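[#protein-structures] MJ: dropping Glutamine--tRNA ligase here for a structure pass
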Amino acid sequence: MNVEKEHVNEHFLDRLIHEELERSPFDRDMCTRFPPEPNGYLHIGSAYAIHTNYTMAHKHGGKFHLRFDDTNPLKEDLEYVNAIIGDIKWLGYDPGSHIYYGSDYSETFYNAAVTLIKRGKAFICDLSADEMTAYRGTLTEPGRNSPYRDRTVAENLDLLTRMRDGEFPNGAKTVRARIDMSSPNMNMRDPVLYRIIHAEHYRTGNEWCIYPMYDFAHPIQDAVEGITYSLCSIEFKDHRPLYEWVLNELDIAAPPRQREFGRLNLTGVVTSKRFLRTLVRDGYVDGWDDPRLPTLQGLRRRGFTPSSIRSFVEAIGGIRTESTVDISLLDHCLRQDLKETTTSLMAVIRPLKVVITNYPEGETEMLSVENNSDNKLLGSREVPWSRTLYIEREDFMEEPSPGFHRLVPGGEVRLKGAYFIRCEDVIKDPDTGEVVELHCSYDPITKSGTGFTGRKVKGTIHWVCAAYAVKADVQLYEKLLLEQDIPKTNDGDWADIINPESKVIIRDVLIEPSVADAISVGVGAGRDRRYQFMRHGYFCVDTKLTTDERLTFNRIVPLKDSWNRK
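AK: finished. structure tokens for Glutamine--tRNA ligase:
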């Protein structure tokens, strides 16, 4: 997919809204909203919806609201509210003072139900959920009217009052719209507007025991807040007639308009709340902030930047239908964001000991190494060098394969920012034959930065000074699921599609000492620190596992795309 910025201005909603606003259909300024239900955490698909609502409002000089659709006390919690607010602000789409709660409109919902009943547009129904399904009909057959559909206005108002007073148990009665049981749109076949739920609400306590359905609450909330555009994903398109019906029957002047955009999916990534909840509940991941999950909490802990996520959703542009985007685009946006802003450090993940036999014992010198080869403005740092070093085990090969240009017996390489070294001797474990140590010599005239123009070497490898190395744990991530296309339904048995190598933990990785500032500044301040570990990728201090004594790093992304490797 092309990620050029010019695509940002090609959003079809932008053109549609511009044309409609030119006809001045509203008596108020442009206003949009993002209405999450606080029953889980936001994910990367949510970021697309937030971005769409936020940018459309600001492009047209309007306001953006965050409104919690908290009208189901069985699922919602303050934990999710706080997480959602934090995630939206972290992304850079701060609603400011415009944070609202559907539960604050409870009296308004109730009065709207009273109005509809008085106008003969709603009634109290005693059908059970199973009976209602049977009466509803099918896509090819019309439904049947409820036997309670013709109750009088007085009877309906009396029953509604008694519902509010808590006289009836859960499921005993509902408030239903009186529309058309033969409508080809199933959503218009006398839908439920209100149901009874005896449960404590996280904000209103036990004040209410009847709660509106989303399709009833949504247009009323929009009208109360002065929303002009309800921008929502494509699965709500068939709900639009009901949205408009509610506003029309309540005589809302200059009503808000619902407009839809495509739903975003990512290859090999689960964005269904139900599936995510299963993965968390059954222990396939270690929480909603597991760095392998596409939740904003997970991406944030892993080390993704807000700007990289914003670039990602901008690059996608306007999508009209349900669309699947390759996950590698998100990684690409992150690499573009980090390549000129992060310090490159030397980290040895699988160490092999190297002794520089002709360097004096007990002596240490400081070498200057550039912080970022793509951005000279980041300057340089001092790195210690001494007799005993560590290099990557994969940077030595006793019997080199064709094209191997790193260290070999009798061969020479440059150590990054330091000297040429030559492998003079290979020390092996006498029992296993494993290479455990290399004895090398160094050439002092080849020091980096001195203008040495003598012999050339084909390879440059990174290293760490043994005496000053910082030990850390590193978590390497690959895609969580083996399959690119996630099944639409799943019986809960995820074991067959979970990638067993989605997280690999490597203990006691050796990192050059300048990384210690990630601890020295304090756990709180150091947690957003990102680095490029040479040749290994971009890494971030893990927000959950790092302590003042021990660093844990998450690999945010490799230096090159690895998602599509077979």
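MJ: nice. Confidence is low (pLDDT under 50) at residues 1-9, 521-527.
AK: one more thing. The chain has three domains: 5-261, 273-338+471-557, 349-467.
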